[in-house]
Amino acid sequence: MISEAASSQMQAEILVVGSGAGGATTAAVLAEAGFDVLIVEEGEWVEQGSVVPFSLEQMDRQYRSGGVTVALGLPSIAYTEGRCAGGGTEINSGLYRRPPDDVLQRWAVDFKIAELDHDEVLAIATEVEQTISVTTVPGRPSAPSEVLQRGAQRLGWQNSEIPRWMKYADGDPKSGQRQSMTRTYLPRAVVAGARLATGCRVDALEMTGGNANRATTTLANGSRGTIGFRHVFVCGGAIQTPALLQRSRISGHIGRSLAVHPTVKLAARFVDELNVPDDVPVHQVKEFAPDLSFGGSASQPGLVALALSDQWDTFARAVTDWRRISVYYAAITSEGRGRVRAVRGLRDPIVTYGLTRRDRALLGSGLARLALLMLEAGADEVYPSFRGAPLVRKRADLAVLRSRFAAGKASVMTVHLCSTVPMGEDTTKCGANSFGRVHGTKNVWVNDASLLPTAPGVNPQGTVMALAIRNARRFAGAERARG
Amino acid sequence: MVDRFDPPETTVITGATGWLGRALVARLLADPSRRRLRVLARTTAESHLLESLGPVEIVIGDITKPDTIARLLYGTGVQVDVIHTAGVIHPRRTREFFEVNTNGTRNVAEAALDHGVRRLVHVSSNSPFGTNPQSADTFRAIEPYNPYFGYGRSKMEGELAVFEAIERGLDATIVRPPWFYGPFQPPRQTTFFRLVRAGKFPVVGGGEQRRSMVYIDNLVDGVLAAELACAARGQGYWVADDHAHTVNEIVETVGRALSDEGFDVKAQSTRLPAVAGRLAEMGDRIVQRLGRYQQQLHVLGEMNHTIACDISVTRSELGYEPRVELYEGMRRSIRWCLEQGVEL
Amino acid sequence: MAWDSRHHQLDGIVGPFADMLLAADLPLLPAGRRAEAVQFVQRRVAVIPSLTRFGVTVIGLLYRGLIAVPFGVSAARFLSSKPLPVLGEYPRLVRSLGYAYIWERWPDTMPNGSQR
Questions:
Q1: Helical H runs in A156-213?
Q2: Residues of A with catalytic function
Q3: Cα–Cα distance for residue pair A226/A9, rounded to 1 Å
Q4: Is the CB of B75 inside 8 Å of chain A's CB atoms?
Q5: Chains that touch B (3 or more CB pairs under 8 A)
Q6: Which pLDDT tens digit goes with each residue over A131-188?
Q7: Taking the model in full, what pTM does it have?
């Protein structure tokens, strides 16, 4: 463990709030550039391997609010955030996607992002891929992953294995060691002189004009403290970052354009046992991308029961077959938008999200297409996760699925949260400038998923890391030039 | 290359007096490799429509009655292909959908199985698959059923009846055409031309929704490709023009075709908000629940949606290639109307 | 902060409801296991974000009131089996937490709660 307990009075040239994909990379770049960096993290340092991946214990220790967080709306959308050293990279599936070229171009134009050079971003992405060991599974993918591959092939749908930040010993597909931030960028930052303090929540930044002077904090034991700094990088993720800015009374386009990839789920039962309780499938079906993608979810028996619980009356009997069941999702790019609002007196911000008519239609179509893929892959029974869902055994049942589906009856959830402080020069829709400095401030920077102007349609953390490194380097270069 | 059967000894067509049926009969009569043609017509009055096309054996009957199909197939010889085009699309009551599109199709599939026909081509529709969830979406070769109202449900159940017979040994192929146009068109399609000409065709919700269409001769090509491609057994295929167009493009193209054929075309268009389409759809749903059917409501409601399909598998597995595109097809349709003395 | 000091109050609201729900759904679940699952649900609800917790408290109080009156338990069971908007989110949350815990901890639990 390389973290230290936070103390009530701390000082640093640069304060980085949050230690996930954005904060860890920012800290490493700035520490290596010679700055005095302090990273503060609200959660604790949890050594990899000390908790079972995708278990409830992991949710208790490494997720915010035990994983029970929700964007209110009709329907409400459950989401999860990492709250531990390394943030989301410690707990998610670790699937890595490069920043999509067309998306970068669209962002640059639509949000007036200066100097968003595609070659530069890709060069950084290549460095990131080496640092976090982005690689495919050696040998055969797991059986739940092969289901996606097989079903897609039979339908003639595009699919591929998504590489992950993993290291495998001796080509053993089960030996994967997640190369998350606690194994890569955080140690790098610390070796370069950065300090990492865990158990420290930043409540607000004290502002004078456009200048942040110090941060007020609450430590794990409940005591209060402050941190002095010259610059602050807020990297708390797309919910906590805008909430902190709002609590600091920073106005502008902050927290108004939350973007997510809403997903619906189903459980599918096969003839042979296939359940892998502690890992997720690595294949994704991209035939309908970016609007619609299919993939596999964590499927330990508790999560199988959860997937069946929406239609428990008729699906409960399947729970004893959990070894033959795996859970899958259909994710969409949403045209809806959400909001994050910090409310005085409440610890947590209020998050809301509204799906559009088109989003709802796409969720229904996505779930039916995913169920079709499961039948093609050899599922003998498919259990869609919504109230009133029919048991799907054959193609004709898919018509019943579609006719009964409504997004309001489904367990809609999401993991990819972004776009609450979009970057760019168009201040009508951007909260930060082209390099992450919050509009209207002199020394407050955002450098995490909040900056992505829209949901990218792919797993976003590769894009988050690449943009965070780009912005941190710009910052270092500009500061050096200033002397 | 796609492996093909030779044309059969006898080709049997149901729905021969319909739009597609007459186009098929006209094509097969012009093909010397087709030796015998036997068709089903509902009434003697309707059968006159066919006599003008050439020598065909006409059986009068109703596909909702099983003995009709037995009579239709009786004495057709050992090598018979059946092309089942009969269907109801705009009835007075929704009950007719199921009598004809579902039970009629089941009768045809059962009789084809009993008779041992070489291949049955069942002409289905896009309607069992509903509408695309958004305008950029395109239906792939295999999609989940999501029937659009009574017609869609009846056609889906028709398909299921065919698949059931396939499981019991029938050789059958399903062809799924979207909105078609071209010669032998019924009066509702003439209304379409008149509305476009007068600038009164209702473009709902911006007109950027996409529609796949199929020119009738392309459809005939597709049906015959499905009949003769050996590998087509047990599959369903989209048969449409090369690609889908937005409603705006369709209205513009039809206007241009009319104008190039010498008609005055009003430059204006009639725009309705998307909510009008949704209201029509709700109205359609209510009316159909009551067992009734109202064509304008139905068409207007569906007009709000994208219905686009991808024909790449049809190309590769059937060797189908659409030869006529939208503008040329529309000009040919207009000329056909003029030849028939139809006022536009 | 404001809401954090009220965990113990919430326990009294969520606990009996979770117990009633799990007892009805999984009648053969051994009492010890049910108690453990109820404790887990309480622990989780205690850390959920403030506003959601407020909603849970309000709806939970409604149900607690209901359970206390004659025939209230069967009425509460009936209500929680219905997909009611907003109101229905509460039983849904409690149920999903309970099931997730039970089947993760004892994967071979039968649908009625008994051990295989």
A1: 185-191
A2: 416
A3: 5
A4: no
A5: A
A6: 999 999 998 999 999 999 999 999 999 999 999 999 998 888 888 899 999 999 999 9
A7: 0.95
